[in-house]
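Thread: K2U complex, take 2
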Amino acid sequence: LLPILRYPDTRLYKKAKPVREVDEYIRCLVQDMIETMKAAVGIGLAATQVDVHLRVIVLDISKEQNNPEVFINPRLIQQKGQREHEEGCLSVPGIYDKVTRADRVVVEAWDLEGKTFALEAEGLMATCLQHEMDHLEGKVFVDYLSLLKQNRIKAKLRKRLRETL
Ligand SMILES: O=C(O)C[C@@H](Cc1ccccc1)[C@H](O)SCc1ccccc1
Ligand SMILES: [Zn+2]
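Output below.
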């Protein structure tokens, strides 16, 4: 399993670089990310969160957690509508808040064979895709909340960290 960076770790704010070619390293990284996402009971994970600054996302919104999807070098082609959704983040454990994002998106990406595909998503899938693609841009969902909320979240996580030390 890969260690997941915790907010406000500055490495979460690094911009990910495109993948040149899908080689053994990328295939291995994807497997590790899928296992890490499952162990953390998340429905998505971006490489940035495991301190690998490459444009790779895995997600699995199936109930049985048995349908992982891989997006390499994802690009947002289209976005429509607006949708507010309660979001959480494996890098900000225990914090949930509402974020407004596009309701439908069309994303183009490479699969594990390096083949380009386009996917139209809506609802939770669209929310998750946008949340993960933000991670690759060095954005965390708490950045959309008010400064007051951000400070409260930092204080809460610092306090929790002190308690565990
Ligand atoms: O940390 C991550 O990027 C994974 C998130 C992805 C996600 C965020 C917001 C909305 C949907 C998915 C985790 O899966 S956090 C756990 C979770 C699952 C469903 C809804 C909210 C939070
Ligand atoms: Zn996240």
